[in-house]
């Protein structure tokens, strides 16, 4: 083994698609290239020891917003104990504003942007000469037809235990300034028949959980329908061993042909991630987001009422030009549509994104450390932003967890004179004042605290306890019931393992 590809994933169940693309396109270096993934939180010395045990000459690291700090420590350690090993960096976190980053200063080389072609070329020069003169190499973007697909590099262990990331296209035609895809000029599709052939092979090997990373799955409806038909065919052929597919969709583009396909999916087999981000037209214009809000709301309502798809809908707090009142109005509007989950995110300044152009005009203050979260704007001060951060955390614990199904409506309507957002914000502020914590709160304690808050809001103590008990009663064998109802990724991974064991 001469070349080692590595990254620190956020969770073990995540499998790096980017590294597998590099490995698939190493050409005549593929036989001397291996992949070794870690999970954030691992000891730096342990990772370094494992990376060095086969004496690689080159280590390439995929660097992302969630792992840059730990990867920096790892690279620093490697350069101390094994300075002869050449370190090459790549990934979105180091592709922009590179010169100011300490990890780039520590490394030997950097490939910015697409690495599928440029990384193998760089490795050949490092190994066989002439030695590269430049430290930073801009990645060449080849036609997608020239790339080898990486899906046969998912191992049997990956299929048994991990989410399989796939992509039918790269890029995005939209210009939302908070997203790195704003820098793309368009979306580029892979050859669809070839891609579906790869999915067929994965399915034959036992894969049942597919997560698409395409930014705009429903941009090309003909392609979307063909991909959905692939999964519908599998569901019909293997009803006792169903597949599960996750797509990111554009909220205001759901023609009738796509609706008809969506309606055919049974419960627990389809999830849509839908980015609303903001319902404020002025804010949308500021961040170059084009969205028909009425059509988007109509489509979300249709999906909730006419399909079995699980809906995960995103909002972002802290966008330039948006105050708390505007965000609250958008939150309440989305809540009325009744998606299964509202992902309440806080704006982050991803390196390279155009959002930074609003910094001075709208008083944007970002944390200088990853993940570069917004701390304040000219309309939301630091204290208020921290309240929003806590709201988001408690919302995950109470609403998105599904554990308080009977209690949540009482929380949201605790005071008839206040909006659901205002009611939950009062609970959030009360929880923080009472516990001084937003994590490591045991479920039993959280339930007691919620009941106490409902009593402070004027609810009868016995009635509050009865409602909480009804939620608990519905959670006998909580994990099993939640898995059966929502077909979570963990459940699908377990079933994949069972399938592999008998196949």
Account of the 3D structure:
The chain has a 6-stranded parallel sheet, sandwiched between helices. Strands 7-10-11-12-13-14 form a 6-stranded parallel sheet. The longest helix is centred in the C-terminal third of the chain and has 19 residues, at 382-400. It has helices at 17-24, 44-52, 68-81, 102-106, 118-128, 156-161, 192-204, 221-237, 256-263, 281-286, 293-306, 324-337, 382-400, 408-412, 420-435, 443-456, 461-473, 478-486, 489-502, and strands at 3-9, 33-39, 58-62, 86-90, 109-112, 136-138, 164-166, 169-171, 187-189, 209-212, 244-249, 270-277, 310-317, 341-346, 365-366, 374-376. Helices cover 43% and strands 15% of the residues. The chain folds into 2 domains: 3-145, Rossmann fold, CATH 3.40.50.280; 154-395, Alpha-Beta Horseshoe (pyruvate-formate lyase- activating enzyme). The two termini are 32 Å apart. The protein is α/β, with parallel strands linked by helices and 503 residues long. It has 19 helices and 16 strands.
Provide a compact summary of the structure:
The protein has 503 residues and is of the alpha/beta class. Helix content is 43%, strand content 15%.
Question: Which terms would index this structure?
Answer:
503 residues, Rossmann fold, six-stranded parallel sheet, 16 strands
What is the topological layout?
Blueprint: E1 3-9, H1 17-24, E2 33-39, H2 44-52, E3 58-62, H3 68-81, E4 86-90, H4 102-106, E5 109-112, H5 118-128, E6 136-138, H6 156-161, E7 164-166, E8 169-171, E9 187-189, H7 192-204, E10 209-212, H8 221-237, E11 244-249, H9 256-263, E12 270-277, H10 281-286, H11 293-306, E13 310-317, H12 324-337, E14 341-346, E15 365-366, E16 374-376, H13 382-400, H14 408-412, H15 420-435, H16 443-456, H17 461-473, H18 478-486, H19 489-502
Parallel strand pairs: 1-2, 1-3, 3-4, 4-5, 5-6, 7-10, 10-11, 11-12, 12-13, 13-14
Antiparallel strand pairs: 8-9, 15-16
